[in-house]
């Protein structure tokens, strides 16, 4: 098998943290993996998997549209290729952000409540039981959204106070928290590497 290429959408947000997490996850595999930062159209089609970082969802959605990356991400998901969308990435990936300022991609069949856990001062950390992981994941929530409702094909992977904060819809894993802000790369492996192994 040739080198696998994983892209990090780099228009805004925690780009370097995702790159580092993917590189840590890749080190645990036997396959050659390269990580590329995506700021313009034409790169996504050559990627085997993508990370869509957090940041500011209105800014991210606007830049994805203006750069022509949005349609490429939609085609990537339609082709069954993996995506990890975190925090604002979850909002942008959803079908409904409950905010007309956000042009969502509609690749995750879920409606999302932006900043559901409050403002920056209300940020918190918590151990989460995540389906597919054998030990709790230390989750970092910063101005975090939650999922209000999901379609019939969506699997809830983790909840806080009975509200979904990690979901899977086909090849997309989306989290309300920031897995890239810890040294634990298990969610990156679950979202970006396990599906690749399954199709190898």
Describe the protein's architecture and organization:
- It contains 5 helices and 12 strands.
- Strand 10 (155-160) and strand 11 (163-169) form a beta hairpin.
- Helix 1 (15-27) packs across helix 5 (186-199).
- It is an alpha/beta fold.
- The model has no long low-confidence stretch (mean pLDDT 91).
- The longest helix is centred in the C-terminal third of the chain and has 14 residues, at 186-199.
- The strands form 3 sheets. It has a 7-stranded mixed β-sheet with strand order 2-1-3-4-12-11-10, sandwiched between helices. A 3-stranded mixed β-sheet has the order 5-6-9.
- It has one domain (4-199): Rossmann fold, CATH 3.40.50.880.
Biggest β-sheet strands, sense, barrel = 7 strands, mixed
Oligomer category: single chain
Q: How many individual β-strands?
A: 12
| Range of strand content | 25-35%
The Cα radius of gyration reads: 15 Å
CATH architectural grouping? 3-Layer(aba) Sandwich
Between the first and last Cα atoms, what is the distance in angstroms? 8 Å
Residue stretches low in confidence (pLDDT < 50, at least 5 long) are none
Widest sheet, order of strands: 2-1-3-4-12-11-10
């Amino acid at each position: 098998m040739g080198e696998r290429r994983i892209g990090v959408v780099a228009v805004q947000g925690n780009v370097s943290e995702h790159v580092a997490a993917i590189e840590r996850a890749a080190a645990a595999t036997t396959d050659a993996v390269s990580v590329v930062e995506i700021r313009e159209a034409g790169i996504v089609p050559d990627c085997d998997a993508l990370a869509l970082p957090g940041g500011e969802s209105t800014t991210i959605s606007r830049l994805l549209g203006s750069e022509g990356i949005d349609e490429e991400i939609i085609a990537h998901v339609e082709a069954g290729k993996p995506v990890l969308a975190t925090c604002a990435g979850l909002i942008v990936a959803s079908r409904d952000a409950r905010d007309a300022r956000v042009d969502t991609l509609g690749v995750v069949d879920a409606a999302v409540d932006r900043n559901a856990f409050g403002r920056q001062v209300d940020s918190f950390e918590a151990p989460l039981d995540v389906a597919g992981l054998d030990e709790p994941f230390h989750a970092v929530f910063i101005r975090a959204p939650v999922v209000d409702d999901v379609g019939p094909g969506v699997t809830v992977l983790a909840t806080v106070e009975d509200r979904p904060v990690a979901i899977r819809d086909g090849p997309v894993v989306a989290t309300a928290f920031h897995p890239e802000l810890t040294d634990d790369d298990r969610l990156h492996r679950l979202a970006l590497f396990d599906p690749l192994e399954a199709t190898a």
